[in-house]
Amino acid sequence: MVIFAVALFTFGKSVDGYVPAQNPAEIAAVSIGETVLSGQQVVDSTKIRKVPVIYHPEYLIEDLKSNQFTDFFTAITTGSVETPIVKITGGNVSRYGDASGFNGPGMVSVNGSKLVVNPPETFVWGYKTPYTVAVKTDKGIDIKTENKTVKTVAAADISNDTVPTMYVNVTDLKEWYNSSDVGDSIGLDFSLSKFNDGRNSVSPSKISSYFGNDTVKYMSEYPSGAPVMVYNGGTNQNIVGSGADTVGYYAEYDNVARAENSRTFVKAWNNTIVPPHSSASGKEDVTFTGVYDPELHSWVSHGACPAGRALRSAVMDAGSPLPKGMGSGFYCVDLVSNPATGIFVNNPTDYPIKIVMWTSGSGTGMGLFAKTIQYTP
Question: How far is CA 66 from the centre of its chain?
Fold first, then answer.
């Protein structure tokens, strides 16, 4: 009997060598490249190929080890046994087919003939990307999700109830509608895409569960296209640049408004993260106060320059080039453009940086401070 069993096993192995291995992507419960968390099922057992027991009697033992009693009895009665999960999966996939053995947002992948889950790299980031948009028509707006129209709203009916969105309030939406042209669009909801590790885009409904509420909050503050750090495994934080300035007094301008604009600039840039080899602007959810300039005969954002100089010093001290949208002189901010979203800081290094800004005091003597923090493994 023992000799017969050994003969069957040997025969099965020889025959199995001529049978093409199952494509690991075929057994995945989710698409290759999808984000998964530890404990999430990544193997669809119904898609696993069955083989004759005569070829692989050892699979029966694996069934018992994995508590796959149903498959064991099915194999005994039908003569066909399911290929054990451990034979077709690799790193960070348990014998039960769930993701395991890592922290943070993993990614389903294929390694040779095995289905695996890659743990997150030390730093993972994607980009805020329009997912649902409102497109202006001659009578109202078409709401489109991934280029498919899901709803049409008449201009007179635009409200919080008809156009729910956490990114644009109804007042701003109506202002956009009244000033835009037919065919123009505005983002209502956003996904994350173009990840540095190549993972698939993540839809709005999954961002919080995969990356946390802080990621959603960060996305709500920054403009479309902004880089968003979703996982930071850096264990070291080092101050690599600093800068400081003061608001100063100018008799010809409204200095109260100037001080407020300095504070707004600080708020716009504080805690902005710039991933490696990328650029980022400040927040878009801030509003600067118009200060009348008698020489320009216009209302501009005076007061942004002192805070801008502090920012410029901090990032250039850290090795970044002159921020795009800033000048190298004393008057460093283009007062006509938005001092938050109109400026871009580039990070040429291999590690993420975070810009931290704060104020001290008040009025024209208010101190404006900035530092650049670099995260490293």
Answer: 36
Can you tell me the distance from the alpha carbon of 102 to that of 116, in angstroms, rounded to the nearest whole number?
12
Q: Is 212 left (phi over 0), alpha (psi -120 to 50) or beta?
A: left
- Give which of 369, 8, 36, 29 is closest to 200, Cα–Cα: 36
Mark residue 121 as left, alpha or beta (left: phi above 0; alpha: psi -120 to 50; beta: remaining). Answer: beta
Mark the ranges of the chain whose per-residue pLDDT is less than 50.
1-8, 11, 14, 16-18
Q: Are 187 and 168 in contact (CB under 8 A)?
A: yes
- Among candidates 325, 318, 322, 323, which has minimal Cα distance to 349? 318
pLDDT at 56 (0 to 100): 65
Q: How many CB atoms lie within 10 A of CB 7?
A: 10
- pLDDT value for 239: 98
Place of tokens 């005969």: 297
Q: Locate 255 and state its tokens.
A: 């200095």
Sign of the CA dihedral running 308, 314, 316, 319: negative
Q: Report which residue type is found at 357.
A: M
**Under a CB-based contact definition with an 8 Å cutoff, are residues 189 and 150 in contact?**
no
Q: What is the pTM of this model?
A: 0.88
Spatial contact of 302 and 335, defined as CB atoms under 8 Å apart: yes
Tokens matching residue 79: 């003569």
Distance separating alpha carbons of residues 344 and 322, to the nearest angstrom: 9
Placement of tokens 């149903």 in the chain: 70
